[in-house]
Structures are given as C-alpha cells and as structure tokens.
Amino acid sequence: RDLIETMGQRCAGTHKDSDGGASDGDLYTFADGNGNSYKVVVPWENASETQATTVNYVPITRMESSSGHYDGGPPWKGTLDYHQTLDFLQRWEDMANATELHIDQRRMGSCAFSVNGELQFISTRSNIGGWLADNVVRTGHSVQAVKAGSKANYHKQGSPPR
C-alpha cells in the first residue's frame, strides 16, 4: 500500500485511462522494443486488495512497423491484483533506478516509460512487457479490437505476443 501511495503522490495528474475515458488512477505506459504499448492504470484512492489495476495491450501492426513485417499480435486487456500491482510498481521503480540502462533518445529496440503522458526515461532493455503478458488476468479484448471489427483480432483467452 505504501508503494502505491508513494508512486501515486509522485505521479498524480489528470489524464484519460487506457480506453480514453476519465481515470481515477495513474497511467503507466510502457512501450517495448518493438513499439507495442502496455497501458497500466493503477488506482489512486483507497489502495486496497479489492481494487484491480487495469492493463491494456496495444500492439503495433505490420503497417506501423519499421520493417513492414512485424505484427505485435492481437490487442488484449486484463487486470492485476493488489500484490501483482505492487510487483509491477517495484519492477518499474527498479527500471527507473537502473540508470546505467538509460539513454537520452529513443532508438530501435529501446523501451520508453511514461507516467500520465509524460516521458520518465528510456531504457536499452526491459522485461516489464513479458512480465505483464505472463501475469495479467485476461478480461477480454481491447477497445481497438472491437473497433477493428475483425474476428481474427478477438481473443478473450490465449497468449499475448512477446
């Protein structure tokens, strides 16, 4: 609880949640080395074991990739429980403190870390995306999949891309 409150006090600000609606938490955005985004909303108020942290995976498409071949797979969304949220925040903080991995500008293969839309740091590598993919409890497809209207993009269960 202290870690959630501390991170919330440090990063509090007005923003939209990962689906574009009003938010009552901090938006942590991690862009992996391929350009896929993981948008994590950690609740501010009354951090407790009953509040879920939401995660929305927004993959890069072939048309968006620099090679024209890479596809991040189907989008997905899910939740982290209280203890997983603490683990996520600790991993984020560990990456923030690993300044030997930080670089000044984003380049191919690097990872960007933002809070409430403000870039915090860029790293040469991170395992946060893989950790989220392995630990999120899937709650359904993302808004992007619904908008795409493609049955091929609809996956309630299954493995997210790596």
From the helix content, strand content and strand pairing, which structural class follows?
Answer: alpha+beta
Beta-strand fraction estimate? 25-35%
How would you state the average pLDDT, rounded? 78
Order of helix and strand elements from N to C terminus: HEEEEHEEEHEH
Q: What is the percent of helical residues?
A: 10-25%
Taking the alpha carbons of the first and last residues, their distance comes to 30 Å
Low-confidence stretches: 6-15, 142-162
* Biggest β-sheet strands, sense, barrel: 8 strands, antiparallel
Description:
The protein has 162 residues and is of the alpha+beta class. Helices cover 25% and strands 26% of the residues. The protein is built from four helices and eight strands. The chain has helices at 2-11, 82-97, 128-135, 143-148; strands spanning 25-31, 37-43, 53-58, 76-80, 102-103, 111-115, 118-123, 137-140. It has an eight-stranded antiparallel beta sheet with strand order 5-7-6-1-2-3-4-8, covered by helices on one side. Helix 2 runs antiparallel to helix 3 (128-135). The chain is globular.
Task: For this entry, give a set of tags.
about 160 residues; alpha+beta; eight-stranded antiparallel sheet; 4 helices; about 25% helix; about 25% strand; globular; disordered C terminus
Describe the SSE topology.
Blueprint: H1 2-11, E1 25-31, E2 37-43, E3 53-58, E4 76-80, H2 82-97, E5 102-103, E6 111-115, E7 118-123, H3 128-135, E8 137-140, H4 143-148
Helix pairs in contact: 2-3
At a glance:
This protein is of the alpha+beta class and 162 residues long.
